[in-house]
UniProtKB/TrEMBL annotation:
InterPro entries, per database record: 6-blade_b-propeller_TolB-like (IPR011042), SGL (IPR013658), SMP-30 (IPR005511), SMP-30/CGR1_Lactonase (IPR051262)
Keyword Nucleotidyltransferase among record annotations: no
Recorded family membership: Belongs to the SMP-30/CGR1 family.
Annotated SMP-30/Gluconolactonase/LRE-like region domain residues: 16-255
Descriptive protein name: SMP-30/gluconolactonase/LRE family protein
UniProt cross-references to Pfam families, sorted A to Z: SGL (PF08450)
SUPFAM superfamilies the UniProt entry points to: Calcium-dependent phosphotriesterase
Organism (species): Pseudonocardia alaniniphila
Amino acid sequence: MSVDLSVVVEKYAFLEGPRWHDGRLWLSDFFMGVVVSVDPPGEPRVEAEVPNGASGTGWLPDGRLLVVSMRDRRVLRREPDGTLVEHADLSHIATGWCNDMVVDPQGRAYVGNFGYDLMAGEQARPAPLVRVDPDGTTTVATQGLRFPNGSVVIGDVLVVGETNGNRLSAFDIAPDGTLGPRRDWAAWDPAHGRVAPDGICADAEGAIWVADPAGNRAIRVREGGEIVQVVEPGTGVYACALGGADRRTLFLCTAPGFHERDRRHSREAEVLALRVAVPGV
């Protein structure tokens, strides 16, 4: 699909976890270890420094920022005075670097992890998804996911992208945050092409935009797996978010690759933007 893409942010190492919050686009840089926000067009503002690698973000009901600290497998919380404190320690549960996260309206965070040492080339293995309650209590939400990555909450359903699983998995959320059995929200036959769901976001029609780095694209998917729109910027797409004043701007986190050895000292990551017909939620 031919689209008009504009550059919103550039010259970063590896950008992930885009969120539209309080009129600004929030982003994490894995390897620079920062969370920044920007009011497009505008200069990025550093919101938090996370030396062990910044990834997923979200907000508690009282407005305090949560951010994943990747290598030490923690979730940090930014207090009103700007200091970062430990919100939860996931190191006894997560079997790889912690990664993306979604926070539901009750303040419960669902946190994925790699499941293995991706950067060292370990063999892939399944990983748990961790629930962090507002008081910092950690619980295994579900197990056996194939690289749980980007997640969204749609009503009382959690949808998780499994990067190595060729699928989006759905779980009903009970009132106490417990997850029901896994089911396919969308799944693709690898014999007909791989989809590697990374970051995801939902729109007002209940479709999900999926960053698919395996295909250097972002795809809009309906429940059941039908791909109804494709955006191909010509480079790797690792995360996406819908935002802007009318929520009709699709932001894409792009980079030529993801591996630390290539990205840590490079500054080739960008956020690209385009207008879409259906707004975010």
